[in-house]
Amino acid sequence: MSFPMTIDEAELNALQELVNLGVGSAAGTLNEMLDTHIDLQVPYVQTYPFSEAKHLLVERLNSQIISSVQLHFSGTFTGMAQIVFPTESASALISELTGEEIGSCDLDAVKVGTLSEVGNIVLNGVMGTIGNILHEPLQYSLPAYVENTVDQLLTSPDFSTDTTIILVQTHFSIQALQVTGDIILIFKVGSFACFLRSIYQYLEQIS
């Protein structure tokens, strides 16, 4: 049986549910580890062809330098998960978590380690939940912290016009602080079909 490369409404709703569960798991872990109450909300999940997703992100974030934590995953489906923050959101998040003032040298010194930890927790929460519920074990690389423009972050020989991106716009809420970030799930060519097949089988099981 062949599976289409486009996602239908039922599959998109299932993906929304999986991401919500993953983000909820990550929020619980962050609350325990950082001793700070953090709410992560997922108001928007959508799939795009690579070129369209890249255009949307470049348009929204312009040419500013953004902070990103990247996590490669492999298994039945292979790709890369990223969480990206505009500079202002990254600084506000780290300042709130560490108590350092925005713009201080000490904040810059702890920025990479703290964002890497937060990004690793969120991305592992999302991908781990997806893998567990779909019964598709995944292997992960060590998280990598990168600062660059979104155009450069999404420029790689691994990505092509056939690559599919799942874009998740999320908000980190720490007390009265609103920090915006994007979770980007990038599937290598052929892997998205495997991912859709797993979602289809999951829907068959619960129907």
Write out key terms for the chains shown.
207 residues, alpha+beta, Chemotaxis protein chec, 7-stranded antiparallel β-sheet, 6 helices, 7 strands
Topology readout:
Layout: H1 9-34, E1 39-49, H2 50-61, E2 66-74, E3 79-86, H3 87-98, H4 105-133, E4 139-140, E5 144-148, H5 150-153, E6 164-174, E7 177-187, H6 191-206
Antiparallel strand pairs: 1-6, 2-3, 2-4, 2-5, 3-7, 6-7
Helix pairs in contact: 1-4, 1-6, 3-4
CATH architecture grouping: 3-Layer(aba) Sandwich
| CA gyration radius, whole angstroms | 17 Å
User: Helical content, roughly?
Assistant: 40-55%
Q: Which range does the strand content fall in? A: 25-35%
Largest sheet: 7 strands, antiparallel
Number of discrete helical segments: 6
Low-confidence stretches: none
Query: In CATH, what is the class?
Result: Alpha Beta
Secondary-structure element series: HEHEEHHEEHEEH
Number of domains: 1
Looking at this structure, what is the CATH superfamily? Answer: CheC-like
Distance between the termini: 19 Å
**Overall geometric form:** globular
What CATH calls the topology is Chemotaxis protein chec
Total count of strands:
7
* Helix/strand/pairing category: alpha+beta
Average pLDDT figure:
84
